[in-house]
Amino acid sequence: MNIYDLTFEIETGMPTCGTDWHQNVQIVPMGTIDEVGRNTQRIVLGSHSGTHMDAPYHFIQDGTTMESLDINYMWGTAKVVDFRNKGQGDVVTIDDVRNIDVEERLIFVFGWYHNWKTDKYYKDFPCFSTEAIEYLISKGMKFMAMDTPSPDDGSAINMKEGEDSPNHKILLREKIVMVEYLNNTDVLDSSKRYEIVALPMKVKGSDGSPARVLVREV
Ligand SMILES: [Zn+2]
């Protein structure tokens, strides 16, 4: 049984989302074997560090927080949608999604993870049109995973309220389980069937959480 890990390693100095206020990851020793007989580390994270999941509270003031998000969508069979033909600056339009036989769980593969730790990762990554997102939800999508930083246009990240991240707001209002920053998606083949498990930390009141994301062929 082949299990594939679609998760980035969390490490000190790793890139974080393209804003100047998101916490940098720090992993530092608190106790060491030499000093206290065991190694124990302090791990400092932002809620959107590396491969992670978003909860509605990320964009909705009274939205569901991570510990209350429906776990039923976090584990089960998933369909791989191959958008490796989409590159920098491209948009997934409604015409691109209309022929998808939509399932509850969809994994969108662009191959964008190859740009991790380069200047390109946060720059004009392929994104989705609002119409495409609305279509996928109308057809029953409940879980959306992608190997890009966001389903939204990254160049709009610092836009004013009302224009910022419209796809996030639509998805989170519908309580769609979102997974961003998948790694290693070259292992996925859209002609095969997979089971996916994506589990966020159960942090009370959290708007998001790093997650370990695994798939296996079924
Ligand atoms: Zn996020």
Can you offer a commentary on this structure?
The chain is α/β, with parallel strands linked by helices and 218 residues long. It has a single domain, classed as Putative cyclase (Glucose Oxidase, domain 1, 3-Layer(bba) Sandwich), CATH 3.50.30. Helix content is 11%, strand content 27%. The protein has four helices and twelve strands, in the order ββαββββαββαβαβββ. The strands form three sheets. The chain has a seven-stranded mixed barrel with strand order 4-10-9-7-5-11-12. The longest helix has 9 residues, at 130-138. The termini are close together. It binds zinc ion (ZN).
Defining traits:
binds zinc ion, 218 residues, alpha/beta, Glucose Oxidase, domain 1, globular, single chain
Write the H/E string, N to C. Answer: EEHEEEEHEEHEHEEE
- Discrete helix count: 4
How would the global form be characterised?
A: globular
The share of residues in extended strands comes to 25-35%
The residue-averaged pLDDT reads: 95
CATH class: Alpha Beta
* Rg over C-alpha atoms, rounded to the nearest angstrom: 17 Å
User: Reading side by side through the largest sheet, how are the strands ordered?
Assistant: 4-10-9-7-5-11-12
Largest sheet: 7 strands, mixed, barrel
Based on DSSP secondary structure assignment, what is the total number of beta strands? 12
Secondary-structure class: alpha/beta
The helix content, as a percent range, equals 10-25%
Ranges with pLDDT <50 over ≥5 residues?
none
Please name the fourth-level CATH homologous superfamily. Putative cyclase
Bound molecules: zinc ion
Cα(first) to Cα(last) distance is 9 Å
